[in-house]
Amino acid sequence: MDLRFGDSKPTDEERAAVDALLGPPESAWEAPAGEWVDRSDADLRWARGGRAARDRRDQLLPGLHAINDRVGWISEGALAYLCRRLTVPPAEAYGVATFYSMFSMRPRPSAVLHVCTDLACAGASGGLPDVPGVHVEESPCLGMCERAPAALLVRAGASASATPLAPFRGLAPDPAPRSPEGLEHAEAGQAVPQLGSPDLVLLRRIGTVDPASLDDYRAHGGYAALRRAFALGPAGVIREVTDAGLVGRGGAAFPTGRKWQATAAQPDGPHYLVCNADESEPGTFKDRVVMEGDPYALVESMTIAAYATGAHHGYLYLRGEYPTALARMSHAIEQARARGLLGDDILGQGFSFDIEIRRGAGAYICGEETALFQSIEGYRGEPRSKPPFPVEKGLFGKPTAANNVETLVNVLPILTLGAPAYAAVGTGRSTGPKLFCVSGAVERPGVYELPFGATLGDLLALAGTPNPLRAILLGGAAGGFVRPDELDIPLTFEGTREAGTTLGSGVVMTFDDTLPLPRILLRIAQFFREESCGQCVPCRVGTVRQQEALERIAAREGIAADDDIALLREVGRTMRDASICGLGQTAWNAIESAIDRLGAYAS
Amino acid sequence: MTAVELGIPRRLLEFTIDGESVRAPEGSTILDACRAAGKDVPTLCQGDTLTPKNACRVCVVEVEGSRTLVPACSRKAEPGMEVRTDTERARHSRKVVIELLASSVDLSTTPRIEEWIAEYDAKPDRFGPDAERLGEEPRVDNDLYVRDYDKCILCYKCVDACGDQWQNTFAIAVAGRGFDARIAVEHDAPLTDSACVYCGNCVEVCPTGALSFKSEFDMRAAGTWNEAAQTETTTVCAYCGVGCNLTLHVQDNEIVKVTSPHDNPVTHGNLCIKGRFGYQHVQNRD
Ligand code: SF4
Ligand code: SF4
Ligand code: SF4
Ligand code: FES
Hints:
The complex is a heterodimer. Chain A is of the alpha/beta class. Chain A has 5 domains: 12-97, Arc Repressor Mutant, subunit A (Orthogonal Bundle), CATH 1.10.10; 111-180, no CATH class; 214-422, NADH-ubiquinone oxidoreductase 51kDa subunit (Rossmann fold, 3-Layer(aba) Sandwich); 425-511, Ubiquitin-like (UB roll) (Roll), CATH 3.10.20; 517-597, de novo design (two linked rop proteins), CATH 1.20.1440.230. Chain A has 25 helices and 13 strands. In chain A, a hairpin with a 5-residue loop joins strand 11 (471-474) and strand 12. Chain A starts with 11 loop residues before the first helix and ends in a 7-residue tail after the last helix. Chain B has 2 domains: 9-131, Roll (Ubiquitin-like (UB roll)), CATH 3.10.20; 145-283, ADC-like domains (N-terminal domain of TfIIb), CATH 2.20.25.90. In chain B, 20% of the residues lie in helices and 18% in strands. In chain B, strands 2-1-5-3-4 form a 5-stranded mixed β-sheet, sandwiched between helices. In chain B, strand 7 (173-175) and strand 8 form a beta hairpin. The termini of chain B are far apart. Classes of the chains: A alpha/beta, B alpha+beta. Chains A and B meet through helix 5, helix 6, helix 21, helix 22 and helix 23 of A and helix 2 and strand 7 of B. Chain B: This is (2Fe-2S)-binding protein. Chain B: Keywords: 4Fe-4S, Iron, Iron-sulfur, Metal-binding, Repeat.
């Protein structure tokens, strides 16, 4: 490589931020431009470079976070210094930094308020506030839909903080940053309207267990599943998960046992485990509630998954917009490590495993598993084309099992109850309990747990249906709308498919008639346009043309809208057929369903 | 029919293209096989010397059993595959992709695009007069080549050529995302402030003329660029001992640009600044 880092220098603060992450520079070659710290004779002959340094490329995203957290934005000098430390070409690092919406390449105030303007919050909020000294930005869904409208206050500085504000009722003059310990643990329970119900399996600890206490977790049955896993052995765990019929809860519904088996069987190594906690589907917040309310459950499930697939290193890729979940998970991982439940020789079983948390930085697309790998590796979060599939070539090109939070925590009841008992819950092809995120115009928004097979009406009866109910969005922005007279749709993968819609990630968002449908559709189109990675033409340009057409017909209906609807269909079909990844392939789903099922734009 | 030159012996895979049985060596792409079978599948982002990025999606074909269409340029052929290149579904996607591209960027210097617009009956104007376009001004910041990103289809070829696939200079990358994504050096600075060593390998691979020789750019602006009047002569570069092949494009007895044959086993079309741009001395007539 022939790298040129330029001669802009970092400020002391920027340098300190990078050094706090990577340690002080080891040689003059790594030092900031024009500065020869402790130049030694060896430096004249020896440079840390080549493979050793390039292997740290995956520290690029943490490094950008470090600078952005400390200073609030990323200057030329700071970027150049980070690149020099990691031997990353500055043009590439710039490409990565500009990919994420939480980073700024221009100076801005140290306080940034991200105000959610997405579906659930759009109805509840009164637009962008004007706060002196605070940079206010529109934000896609912040994952706090049950407490809409939501906002996130991010403050840069030596003690950087991020404070979720939901419901957001304006900014107090100086909201004190809250520490994770200071958070009442009942808070996660507030998102669970069924709290206290004896039928809960996945949510049973949330709101009752102290999320900061490993002992409390154990007192509530924690780590029984891991002991059973060790008793069964890796192949036994996979058999149990397969027999239980567990399928991925992220939307694709792939059998988890098959994925694990395929990963475990790969001769290449090392194997990796990735937990996808980049929950960014508008309307989804269940993974956040699980991580905030029952963090050790995820640590335990990841340990079991790693044991089954032969991984010794796991990554938890967590949305950048979830500061509370980040704090809770970091704390839980530290505690587990301190007590021998992570690290070498877990529970004296000779199995070693550890978890590293990686923070996303504002990019919906990083929830796509291959984009997530790219992001961890320090590249732009652009999906890779498949095949090869992650079980064969995933993170760092190695066999990888990637599962989302909800899928993983299902492994605990599978092992404690046993596969037959677990499989007896739900329907024949959709087994077990399922989490639903109910938001929008309902009386009791929140995360609900129901066995697969309950109907949409059952769920909405629990949550309190609005009157009049205008439409229900199933599966989030990538899902589809259904009508209020379709409440008997069974909430299973096969049942929704038969009804011509999708369960997706388990989003159920209801709309009454206070919000005009064309405005909701426009917001969905805008979301996809802004979150497209830009790699492939059908999605990069198609999402723009889709938004333009919807803008044109916002005020039209009947035959007047026909030409643009025909255009939308043609573009939509191409996005679905020819895009590289699921984002482009689903960007037209909700709009198509609104036209066909709800009769949007019909006179 | 054999799709690519057989090096070391490779297994032949049997599958069908448009119902006809074909054989291709293991490792070949569907595109290799289609071309060998005489099918004309359009491509833009595919490059003969680069790993396909499959970003443009004009080469999509139908593969039996696949939920979505498949990019022929990068999907490896598999035994028993049933490929259909000319279905309504594939043609529809190609047509709309061409329309999407032509409505957002300037394809006036893209070879074969007129032919494909006609072939697929594409109507880029139908997105209306207000359809968003890139709308970039050409960047003329050095004497060797011009970056006119209004013509850029974001095929990633220049990034790959400058990066780990050929030049290893890593001067340029994709920045931003979505419709706002652009090829840029760090902080979107002028090329002269970047790591660029002016090898011109990015210009060599650019499929749309977004990157072009300053000489070509100036002549086009002056209306004197005339490809029909140009002759091409391949010779050996005299600067050093490597022996790279140079193809001199000559118009009116002046060298107007220099390319390099991609099938040359030594250079695969890559040159350095001297071979690519250092031709003035040849035509110094004093
Ligand atoms: S479909 Fe969209 S998000 Fe996915 S790769 Fe293509 S441009 Fe990127
Ligand atoms: S001229 Fe060479 S070094 Fe410069 S950007 Fe192009 S490929 Fe990279
Ligand atoms: S400048 Fe040319 S080679 Fe580079 S991405 Fe754009 S079209 Fe492709
Ligand atoms: S040529 Fe295949 S996707 Fe561009």
